[in-house]
Write a structure and sequence with these properties.
212 residues, Lipocalin, 1 helix, elongated, twelve-stranded antiparallel sheet, mainly beta, single chain
């Protein structure tokens, strides 16, 4: 698996930008897809009991109600008493299925993702579908925050020091986006990974995101 993980890593590197907002290693955004031809860029810090990661993200839209995300960065993971430095790359797409308004109570998007993590004698591939729901909160005629709920069905193939494991988990992301000024946002997120046998069950993070 490690050999093919490296091949897939090279393919993602060729496809992703130099600094790549996918939703694989964290959600960090609401269910709203970007307007057509729009772009956003962000950075996030994610922490759990046995890992810390720094990620950058690019998100773009080429079609109405559809957007794509790319995510890349580095992490430090503690496994079996060893600290392992890893590279993370991921991509996803979303389709907006519902928009909050007179006929719908919230924004809803559906999508799918693929992610790869690679380090010294470590390889991880994650794939699966995703769902995100959110609803903006308006005060005095201005949107002040956007709480969101993200849900994934994640299939993982993991290898460390020649031992391979397969896993299925359901990561739940509870977070909120805070618009600061036009085109600039701060987000905070808590992750709860149900049935997770490889990663920590809880993780927390903070991020920034802006239009480009």
């Amino acid at each position: 698996m490690e050999r093919w993980s490296k091949s897939l890593l090279l393919a993602l590197l060729a496809f992703a930008p130099a600094a790549a907002h996918a939703e694989v290693f964290g959600q960090w955004t609401s269910a709203r897809t970007l307007p057509m031809n729009a772009h956003s860029f962000g950075a996030q810090l994610e922490m759990s009991r046995h890992s810390v990661g720094l990620l950058s993200n690019l998100r773009l839209s080429l079609y109405p109600d559809v957007d794509f995300g790319f995510q890349g960065g580095f992490s430090r993971v503690q496994l079996e008493g060893n600290d392992v430095a890893t590279v993370r790359l991921a991509a996803d797409f979303r389709v907006q299925a519902m928009r909050a308004g007179d006929t719908a109570p919230l924004d809803l998007s559906l999508g799918a993702f693929i992610g790869l993590e690679s380090g010294d004698r470590l390889g991880r591939l994650v794939v699966g579908p995703s769902l995100v729901a959110s609803r903006g909160v308006t005060m005095s005629g201005k949107e002040r925050l956007v709480p969101y709920l993200g849900l994934q069905a994640r299939f993982t193939q993991f290898e460390y020091r020649g031992v391979q494991r397969d896993d299925f988990s359901v990561p739940i992301r509870l977070g909120c986006v805070f618009p600061v000024v036009q085109g600039f946002r701060i987000s905070g997120e808590a992750q709860f990974r149900i049935s997770e046998d490889i990663d920590d069950h809880e993780a927390f993070g903070i991020g920034v995101d802006f239009d480009i």
